[in-house]
Amino acid sequence: MHIAIIGAGLAGVSSAQRLQAQGHSVVVYEKSWRPGGRMSTRQTELGGFDHGAQYFTARSPSFKKHLAQWRKAGWAARWEAKLVSLTAGKHKPAGRAQQRFVGVPGMNALVRAMADGLDVRAGQTVKRIERFGDQWLLSVVADTVPIAATAGPFDAVLLAVPAEQAAPLLAPVPAFAKQAAAITMAPCWTMMLGFQESLDLPYDGAWVEQSRLGWICRDSSKPGRRAGEHWVAHASVAWSIEHLEDEPERAREKLLKAFHEATGSAVQPVYVAIHRWRFAQVPAPLPQDCLWDAKLRIGVCGDWFAAGLEGGGKVENAVLSGEALAALVG
Ligand SMILES: Cc1cc2nc3c(=O)[nH]c(=O)nc-3n(C[C@H](O)[C@H](O)[C@H](O)COP(=O)(O)OP(=O)(O)OC[C@H]3O[C@@H](n4cnc5c(N)ncnc54)[C@H](O)[C@@H]3O)c2cc1C
Fold this sequence. Notes:
Elements: E1 2-6, H1 10-21, E2 25-30, E3 41-44, E4 47-50, H2 61-73, E5 76-78, E6 83-87, E7 90-93, E8 101-103, H3 107-115, E9 119-122, E10 124-132, E11 135-142, E12 149-154, E13 156-159, H4 163-169, H5 174-181, E14 186-195, E15 205-209, E16 213-218, E17 229-235, H6 237-242, H7 248-263, E18 271-281, E19 291-293, E20 298-300, H8 315-329
Helix pairs in contact: 1-8, 4-5
The structure holds flavin-adenine dinucleotide.
């Protein structure tokens, strides 16, 4: 079959890999310039900052199998981090029970390596999908050309985008659109900090309590990163929701203050950047693996499906959901 996949994050790339290996002709449309999605690494003159997903864990046997292959290929590695919970400068050990993994040399490197050999049309946003006989046409806008072009026809179309972005595209399949519209994804303000001198903090990452921040991480402590004192800080879900429409300058000022308060360090950064994720994580996923209509040959996958796990919104959900959908397509 000739199959279009919308979204080159982990879910889209996982399903594309599997379908291509089964002999299908697969085209992946991605609105950004590179595959990765929320497995995102911002390149700066100081090196990369993982400003989306921070690390991942592996619970299911099938995901553990993938992880073993990625580690063998050098695309992922274990992050042996000292993690704590932090309240107003005071810390205590936390999160010891789990093993954590990261993409190498950045989170997005894993998705890029997986996407190697796939036909990914980057910088192309799918605006609409419509029936064409018993096939599908896509209306696609490229960053470089302001008018939409028609792509297809495709025998099947798979959506691998956050729920809020999937819902309007799913207009031709109201039952799926309704399920996507029922999901609310939590936003996240993210701050990236580069320091010239060490902060001398005795931990690599911390869940922050009683703060505008929910998580901070010494990004440069992850394997394969450039040396230096680079930190990523995520605002709490509550603060991100309340301040979603703040000017970036204002959010940056507030979060930098919170970083100093939480760590107790007065060292000033030489680099500060801020990013707003409107759709970051999924508090309550759909319980199934994915959605698939075998008659219309349209499907949906992503981290907003539990896919056999407890909870959603994680790297492992995205991979398992993408693979489950590919298995149904056959
Ligand atoms: C701040 C933050 C922190 C996180 N921390 C963790 C963590 O520590 N551990 C963990 O396991 N997970 C974490 N996550 C979640 C993890 O990143 C996601 O679960 C996973 O990356 C989702 O993959 P996905 O393929 O489902 O979606 P995405 O990665 O969102 O991929 C969707 C892709 O579709 C593209 N797209 C959207 N609309 C269109 C369109 N119309 N046309 C073409 N392309 C389109 C997007 O550009 C994107 O590349 C975090 C996420 C964020 C944002």
